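worker-03 picked up job from queue 'complexes'. Input manifest follows; two sequence lines, order preserved.
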Amino acid sequence: MYKVILAIRYLVKRRITYFAVLAVALCVFIVVVVMTVMIGLVTGFTQKNHSFVGDCVVGTESLVGFPYYEDFADVLKQASFVEAVSPVIKSYVLVTPVGSEHNYGLEMMGIDSALHSMATGFGETLHHHKLDAAKAFAPAYDPNLTGFVVGIDRWLERDSNGRYDHSPSPTRAGLAVTCFPLTAKGALAKAGAGLANTKTFYFSDTSQSGLAKVDSSLIYLPFDEAQLLCMAGSVTRASAIHLKFKPNVRLQSGCEEVASLWRKFKQETAGQSQASLLENVTVQSWKDNRRAFIAPMEKEQTMLTVMFALVGLTTVFIIFVVFYMLISHKSKDIGILKSVGVSNANIMILFWGFALLVGLMGSAIGVLFGCSFLVYINDIEGWLFEHFRFQLWDRTIYAIDDIPNQVELRVVAVIVLSAIVACWVGALVPTWQATRLKPVETLQVSRL
Amino acid sequence: MGVLETFRGYVVSRAQKLIGPEMLKLFLWLRYLRKKKIVFLSIAAVALSTALLIVVASLFTGFINALERSAVETIGDVSLAAPIRFGKYPLFIERLKQTSAVEAATATLSAEGLLHLGEGKVRAVKVWGIEPARRAKVTDFERFLRKQGQFDEEPSFEVTGSMDMVGGFVGIGVVAEPNEKTDEYDGRVIEEMLGIQVVLTTGTVIEAQDSAGSGAGGLQFKRRVLGFTIVDIVETGVYDLDKRFVYLPIEALQRTLHPTEDDQFADQIQIKLADDVRTDVAVAEIWGVWQTFAAKELAWAPYLINQTTISTAKELQGRYIAELRKQMGVLLVIFGVVSFSVIVLIFCIFYMIVRLKQRDIAIMKSCGAASASVAWIFVGFGACIGVVGSGAGVVIGYAITGNINAIEDLIRIIFGLKLWKSSVYVFSEIPNEVDWVWALRIVLFAIIAAAIGTLIPALVAARTKPVEILRYE
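worker-03 finished. Artifact:
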């Protein structure tokens, strides 16, 4: 009981400990705010990548693609753990707006909009066809025309609030799309021929995936049209098959099942004429498929954590100094405690309990202010933008909507725990010194 | 003589008054530093915060400088972009060179296309039709050529052993991907690409012929195909440029895009300014030459002339650089706020020293030291800690920033973690110049912060009453 009483007494009576609490609170406040925003950005980006590719991708990097994809798609559809399957053509196309002299290169995905919406979050990204993704390639102004869906940043500009000025219905606009038709051997199918492998498509919708690179460089075309444009040869080919697993299927086990099915399928088709193209096909979970994009953000998060840990070292120093002072001043208390039989272990527990109290109080204050700040962070940014034209991120450049402010309990718990550990580390040496104090020295009449 | 003596006496007495207390302060500072090892903690904290802030500021500034530098190295000092292609560009370049502001200029014709590099390898590329020799005078283009950059000769598209074949330069990222772990290109793969034939597909919009052949059938896209030999590889160190650009002779691109037209045309002019010319004056002069040329030689309407943009390389990057500067400011503020705890640390340490040294203070005051002098001992000592700590911080910051690429490589070797990739951060190397302007600001901030941390303890020291402290009982 005396440990609790003394710890509280030191906290209340020794004003210098307020500074230790203040330092811990400041550090916790900043870390809670920055890590919440950073984790929110990383989580949002990761989820958008997941939504973009579905759960699993069976595909090849080569633009030649792979044959017999329809047969394998049938195998997958029969699997109990698969909910949706969407074959995809991927290539590069040259795009020329009708009536314009300019052209530009884009990445192209040929999809069946209905299937792709079931396998991925494609349908959710559409503006005009959000409720009926199956008709994504049927322009509202003339459903008989062959439509295209384009990444939103290729079509519209973001305003300073990160919003796009959509027209009530899609406006008629044509794009001449030119593509290399490749044979199964990867050669140009029409090399030397003057004829253009070009077809005109009409604007049907925009897709806002929230991924800057995708929204600025991707055009979606109907699967059959894309296949005609890019894949020459008697046997039809696709670049990838995107899958969605049933709700209770674990990602890793689902991918392993798909890989197993693929190995079996490859063996069964080994004797076919273009079976060699199946060798380059890989089975990847969405995380592996998008690793190159997600990893840099995760690394930045790690680097920021390391930097905060370095700066947080100062807090450890403060705790050390405060405890050093406290123990210097309270050497008589310690002497008396030890002279009435309190063990060294109990002295340590007393000061570590005090460190815990400092850590808990500082963390509580820091978390309280941090959460309050996060609740209003978007309002504060809005006010700053209104009065000083200051935005944390220029929304016309970055594909970020609101500043993420969802506090995760797990993150807060880790931060609070780190703060308490920092307090204990800071208190370690002074506490050790306290246990080494000898009552016979500290309670000498000459030193009283 | 009498006046001189009086003056000397005055100087000596002032010096004694000044040196006396100064020496005392210095003596006490050194004594506290020697006796109170805890003071080193505050020095370490100041050094740590200073080093961190210097590294952050230097990396951001280095990145911004590298962006600006890469723009100048790629497109020269000033770029003129016309809304449509225009003819007679050699005449325009001649007129530009006659002005005092322009040292050299070169034309560029741009297009987009698809490059077929071999079996199944197709890349979307930006195509620049260029004049290699002239371009080398406007930009650092020659330096970026892996093969021809090693020699002093002018760069050329000439294909060895063939006068008829078209040669071209290709960005290193177009023909190869950097290694996933080391972020370096495989030299062997790149060497193999030299001399191979590739096919570029691009296109132009032409007036479609109607059934009567009158050309009134509207605009129609026509695919154009150009085969060329890769004669060199361009490695600028800027990922986006290396990944997307293909360079061809401007005449060959003209012939491919518009085979029926004889005139020489371009859509951009890149300009190198003469030394010691003010950029705004130079841009105004170029603008004047362009207006006259477009109106008289091209017979362009004023609205078309006004659609031309003449920008400095730095202006072209301005929006992104402003955003980067803002992010740097936000990050420095965040770390600055966290570094506020250094002030708290210094306060705690000094408060402790003042409490422990009350007798020293009381003795000084009883010997006649003013309260302000006593306070100044501690404020000055705090400032000294700021100086020493920030000095150490500068050294650490300099060492980290200067060796940042080696440190990053070490992390890769030890932990297998590649932190910097050109595909993510544009440049193949981390910019490693120390931003001395920001370093100076941070050092000053650190010294002031250290002095602020001592204010309350100094005040407590100044209010010490000798009569209470030095009482016998």
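worker-03 released lock.
The longest strand of chain B covers residues 102-118.
Chain B has two domains: 22-65+326-469, 110-261.
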